[in-house]
Structures are given as C-alpha cells and as structure tokens.
Amino acid sequence: MLLSYFFPNFAIKDKTMEGKYINPYTDFGFKKLFGTEMNKELLISFLNALFEGHEEIRDITYRNSEQLGSGMIDRKAVFDVYCENTKGEKFIVEMQKAEQNYFKDRSVFYATFPIREQAQRGDWDFQLKGVYTVGILNFVFPDDEYPDDCMHHEVKLMDVEDKHVFYDKLTFVYLEMPKFRKTEDELVTMFDKWLYVLRNLSRLMERPAALQERVFTRLFEQAEVAKLSPEERFDYEESVKVYRDLINVVETARQKGERSGMEIGLEKGRAEGRAEGMEEAKTESARRMKQKGFSPDDIAEITGLSKEQIEDL
After folding, report:
1. Rounded to whole angstroms, how far apart are CA atoms 115 and 117?
2. Nearby residues of 101 by Cβ (< 8 Å), 6 or more positions away
3. Which residues, including other chains, have CB under 8 Å from residue 49's CB and lie 6 or more apart?
4. How far, in whole angstroms, is CA 30 from its chain's centroid?
5. Which residues, at least 6 apart from 171, have a Cβ–Cβ distance to it below 8 Å?
6. Residue 23: CA count within 13 A, CB half-sphere
7. In the predicted model, is pLDDT for residue 266 greater than 60?
8. HEC string of 258-294?
9. Residue 90 has what pLDDT?
10. Whole-model pTM over 0.85
11. What would the mean pLDDT of 86-103 be, rounded to a whole number?
12. CA nearest neighbour of 114 among 94, 102, 104, 129
C-alpha cells in the first residue's frame, strides 16, 4: 500500500497509542529521545554512527532551538534539535515527517542561522566553525532523483569541474527512511542499528537481540510509554494526534491531486491537469489544517502556499 510505503509508522487502524514504545516520528518522541540533556548520549551515539568516524563527537551542548532573524520583521527558524560539539561545530537535527515544497531551500535557509550567529563584533577574520544539517526524512525525494538503493546522502559545496569539495564546513546529510528495509539479522554497523530503531521503534514489543549495545539499553528504557509521567503521556498523545492528522492531510492531498489532475487532464493534458489538481488539493488541505489549529508557518511549509493565501481561506 502506497501510504504505508511513504509513512511506515502510520497505519489505517492506528495502534500508535497502544504500542510499547514511543513513536520517534512524533515531535514529542523525537525530542524525548534526542533533544534532552539527560538523553544526550543517544544523540551522540547516533551522530557518531552517522558520520562513521569522519567526525568524532565526545560531548555536545544543547543550544536554543528557536532562532530569530537580525530584525523584528525577519522570519525565525525553529529546529527540532540544535547543538554544538566541543569544537564549536553546530548540528541541526530535523525529523521531517512529510514531503513539502521547497524542502531543500528550507534546509539551506535553516543553515544560515548557525552561520550568522558566529559573526563577532569588532575585528573578525570571518573564520567559521563547521555547520551540519541532518535531515531524517519520512519520505523519498521526488522524480526518482536517487536510485531506490541509495538512501544516505551527504552534500557539500563542490567544484563542478573537477568534483573536489570546495568548502568542507557546510554539510547537509539526508536519510530517506522509507528506503531502509534491512531486517534485524541484516544489521551490521551501528548506523544500520540506529536506522532500524528509528524506522521500527513504535512497532516493536521488545528489544531486538541485535541491539545489545549499552546505548540501546538507555534508548529502550526512555522510549517505554508505560514509564512516561502523566504529563508526558498527555503531551505524547497530543503529539501523536498531530502526527496522525498531518499524515491524513498529506495523503488526502495526494489522492485528491491525482483525481482532480486526471479529470482536468482530459481537456488540458495530463501534466497541466495534475498541476492544477495539486493546487486545488493544497488549498483544500490548507483549509483543513487551519481548521485543526495548525500554525500558519507549518501550513505554509507543508503546502507551499503563502501566508496571504492561507489568511484568505
């Protein structure tokens, strides 16, 4: 089923609340595991597995995840997790739950905040610390941009003539999670094991035998729903509802866009029809999200509509 391929943690009969472990694709779940001081060893382990020795992280310091522009009217950025290592290098770690227009533009825009905050008053030689943006994507890039067996992408500024890395202090890492299909007995590296946990945690009923490292002991202890406080349980359930609504909105937009596109396409051609159908679907999805209390910023990011268009709905 197409929906379960793109959103492996979503089921038509939702059992997220009934699972033993929290869903890391929810805002609460992701920040509980990776965005708290008490669990920073989980984030350190994940990042070290991701960079496979090219970047060794011994400790991190969490930074304010809400970044403001230089002026009152500038747009702000809110990161899922924002931290720096002992060398002062910055790491933005984002769980991207659904495909959205201009996703790559958004990644580049977000990276400008940790770059700009390094500016110093007075004399300064413009030397910068490295900035890493890590996107854990619960979707695949469109238009077959990458082959199906290629899910891990590391992007740097490159000289297009001879292909050497022109600037190595700005790195974007994207993980297309729906493409990760390894089973438990196929897990070899720590990177494999972390991807398996992220993709399957909310469906597991016990800790897999392949995940015996100490860091996973910590993870499964922290991820157990039964151990959440009443306040945490309430926040988690609200986060699951938002996640479920988002997935339903995205799937509705996709289906409606295809139907409308085919109908209009009978007269104007398939490509034009699909485009017009998708615009109609985005408008309808934005209207539904507005009714459910989504913020204008979230609606704009997910649908690609302007704030002015959203306000007129």
Report:
1. 6
2. 303, 304
3. 189, 190, 191, 193, 194
4. 10
5. 130, 131, 132, 133, 154, 155, 156
6. 27
7. no
8. HHHHHHHHHHHCHHHHHHHHHHHHHHHHHHHHHHCCC
9. 96
10. no
11. 89
12. 129
* Chain position carrying tokens 């209009």: 264
> Taking the C-alpha atoms of 261, 262, 265 and 269 in order, what is their torsion angle to the nearest 10 degrees?
100
Contact between 81 and 35 (Cβ < 8 Å): yes
HSE (side-chain half, CA atoms, 13 Å) at 287 = 10
Higher pLDDT, 12 or 259: 259
The Cα-based distances of 284 to 90, 101, 270 in angstroms read 38, 16, 21
* N-term to C-term CA, the chain: 32
* pLDDT grade for 113, boundaries at 50, 70 and 90: very high
- Beta carbons of 310 and 284 less than 8 angstroms apart: no
Nearest CA-CA partner of 204 in 33, 41, 32, 24 = 24
Contact call for residues 87 and 129 (beta carbons, < 8 A): yes
Q: Which of 240, 244, 213 is nearest to 228 (CA)?
A: 240
Query: In this structure, which amino acid lies at residue 264?
Result: I
